[in-house]
Amino acid sequence: MTNHRIRKIDLTTNTVSTLVGNGTASAINGIGTGATLYYPKSLALDSVNNVLYFVQGESDSYSTSYTFVRKVSLSNSQVTTVHREAWWNYYNGITSY
User: Fold this and answer.
1) Is the residue at 29 inside a domain?
2) Is the pTM for the entire model greater than 0.85?
């Protein structure tokens, strides 16, 4: 998943389509391709297959790395950030908040 999208496969028609993400590397909430993702990984479904959770990471120009836990409501393809944590890469170590 290196194109900043999550795809879905329709097994009856063998069609692949984009569930969420538009190819832009970022972390903006939205619906379907209106949302932006950054290397989504570690996908997991909730117990009733209504919500897809995933993790993504992102870095900015100030040597700050962010880790996001995000979710997709499968009923409407709404992407929402559940948790965000930042790590600053200082010369004397790594600090988080």
Assistant:
1) yes
2) no
Is 26 inside a domain boundary? yes
Residue 97 is classified by DSSP as -
Q: Exposed (0-12), middle (13-18) or buried (19+): which is 74, by Cβ within 10 Å?
A: middle
> Alpha-carbon dihedral of residues 32, 34, 36, 42, nearest 10 degrees?
-10
- Residue 52, domain extent: 6-96
More confident position, 33 or 87:
33
Let me know if residue 1 belongs to a domain: no
The DSSP annotation for 18-72 comes to EEE--S-BS---EEGGGS-BSS-EEEEE-TTSSEEEEEEEEE-TTSEEEEEEEEE
Task: Say if 15 falls within a structural domain.
Answer: yes
